[in-house]
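thread: overnight batch results

M.L. [08:02]
morning all. the overnight job finished for the chain we discussed friday. pasting input first so we're all looking at the same thing
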Amino acid sequence: MRIIAHLDMDAFFAAIEERDNPRFRGMPIAVGSDPKGGQGRGVVATANYKAREYGIHSALPISKAWQFSEEARQRGKPAVIFLPPNFERYTEASEHIMKIIRAHASLVEQASVDEAYVDLSFSGSFAKAEKICRAIKEEIQAKEKVTASVGIGPNKLIAKIASGFQKPDGLTIVEEGNAEAFLEPMSVRAIPGIGPKTELLFTARGAKTVRDLKKFSREELVELTGKWGAELYEKIRARDETPVVEEYEVKSIGEQETFAEDTKSAELIFERLSMMCKNIMARLAGDGFRTFKTVVITVRFTGFETKTRTHTFSNPQRTAKALQTEAFRLILPFLDARENPKGKLIRLIGVRIEKLG
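M.L. [08:03]
and the structure it wrote out:
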């Protein structure tokens, strides 16, 4: 019998901020860009559940989040506390949480900083798997003072969907015999891989729920969505053979920033790029890596034209100075006629490292 659990931390970044700052407890919190009184650019990274009551959620433009906060404040509710992300602190908490999970199971796949799949097939039953998951949740709450939601199912697909079913601090069990029925009433968007455009494609054909999607044959789904349609045919029938893979490989680490105003100021661009490089090197160490070989910079102009440039060193690099020097070298042509002949203003810059060691 295959039994897989998916553990997903609840509003993780915001939960850590609330935990570490007692004065924030019980207040609506949004972690992300500076809203600058409604003039800020960028997006919300995470919002806690109090902020979500205002309509604020991850990936929402920060200016819109500030607007929702002001509307709530005018109704007599607390204003949202906007905080910049502290990735070093989140990474440290994540490491502690993953250590707790691995003390209860030997096969754990860390899917991101705040979620993991756990193979509990060794438990032999869903009842025993539930006991293990409750023990994990209780230990995380006791030691890290944050909550997690868990889904338990016959495969990774069902476990992941189930973990979001009763948030926050939930635990949902879906046994194999009930998995198809569990999915059927859900919106098509519940299936991983179906985004807004694909949802519109199916809605136009009368398919709003997973049950509706099952009316399409495998061939019809392939015709509509390409090769992925064959995989989708299996997913909507609650079938997924993807294994839990023990080693989670961080493929890249990066940061980007949207400027408050579009600019060509070399002083400002180099200052922000330097800070990004320092943050990235701190995260590199926090993720257990020491070196990198590839540097990628991103430049987005006014009008959203976006360009990237990449350089791969012949030997691994390990210092912030090496990263900063290369990032500066790659971005410099965008400040003159070599890469920016029309003198366009720059809206966003980013830097990323790859081929980590």
